[in-house]
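User: My collaborator sent over this chain with a note saying "see what the structure looks like." That's all I know about it. Can you take a look?
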Amino acid sequence: MSGPAPHRLPRREAIQWMLAATATAALLDLRSLGAPAVPARGYGADLDLTAAYKPGELWPLTFTDSQRRTASALCDVIIPADGLSPAASAVHVVDFLDEWVSAPYELQQTHGKLILEGLAWIEAESRLRYEKKFADLDEAGQHSICDDICHVPRAAPRFKTAAVFFALFRNLTASGFYTTPAGWKDIGYVGNTALERFDGPPPAVLKHVGLA
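Assistant: Without extra context I'll predict from the sequence alone. Here is the result:
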């Protein structure tokens, strides 16, 4: 494979991906791909933010069984299982993606069109190259497709639209994964964990900021 591998995100990049995902709409010119603007409309009553909702409870989900299988396989190419954490599909990132593309908001509806078209492209490309579904390919086969679309600036002209899809899908996969307990553990995030004692900043940190 040439260029950066499209799979496991290094720890030092995980937070960057999470932040980048929030700016995806600004970075990707989706209108140039023909994605139509969705007219504004009412969304109903405010949600109960203290309640726990199951997938599909707030609005009908979009993915078919076939699309879920393709999306799960692609999630695991981006974040596979390793010695630090499970694969993205194991922590139900595909449920997050399905909820995202199904939400009745303008950004999510625009993303949904691009993602559904991208999943269809992945399947068509897999059948064209290997006469198999993407989820049935071995690691080398899956990576050979993803390598062609994993970096928008270097993608060949015929892969440009698919590369834009992959960039969005990768950002959303990282967002879903790194907001789960498994993702927190993977990047060493401890959050609001009670400490038995706190000895203050390490001397090296104090020296670095000119306080020691």
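A starting point for your reply to your collaborator: Residues 106-130 form the longest helix (25 residues).
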